[in-house]
Amino acid sequence: METTRNYFFSDMAVMLGRSMRHVFRSMDTIITVAIMPIALMLVFVYVLGGAIKIGTDNYVNYLLPGILIIAIANSIGYVSYRLFNDVQRGIFERFNSMPIARSAAIWGHVLTSVVSNAISIAVIILVALLMGFRSPAGILSWLAVAGVLMLFTLALAWIAAIAGLLAKSVDGAVAIAYPIHFLPLISSAFVPTDTMPGPVRAFAENQPVTSIVETIRALLSNQPVGNEIWVALAWCIGIMFLGYVFAMRAYKKQI
Fold it and tell me: What is the dihedral of CA 244, 247, 252, 255, to 10 degrees?
């Protein structure tokens, strides 16, 4: 037990490397997580952008935070899918017969989501720069944006882990991603919420994506974030905590 504790981080690094190899070998993962959000950004900026009134001529600046959130949401189904496959193949039972930290396996999947999303986000931002995105934000603001995106990724990854561990089929495992995809669409990611009908606006303004998008948008514009950042952090940390607790319970039940 002492050896397992001492080597937790090295065990987790091995599991992270294993999961990342699966990601790089899967072309559909790369297309869904990186290329699809970029395609969506191109469509909205160059096809629909002229018809959307947001009070600024640089629509890509307004749109980018929402595209980053969509990229993260697109990746969540793969967390549950990979975990489901490990459960079905008895991988966790094999790991538990070895002198490694038990939770390292599930942490490897969760951290893979963070690393792969960081790569995708970097690529999306580079494409946005080519499309005209400009930001006066300083290094501290960019670090704050990275922190918020990482917390949001961790929160969704732990929620996806629950589905992957408890699902009875592949379809059930990846189904967790579908409702998450709708949240950016019914938020301030594409248009201001004050243009929406009353009930839709009420939902949009009181769900996590809007506060996260508004926080990132203010940080990238070098504008005061106000209370939005605390609301965004509360959403991320609250979801992450609940997801972690229930995911670990499900994981212990599986092993």
Answer: -130
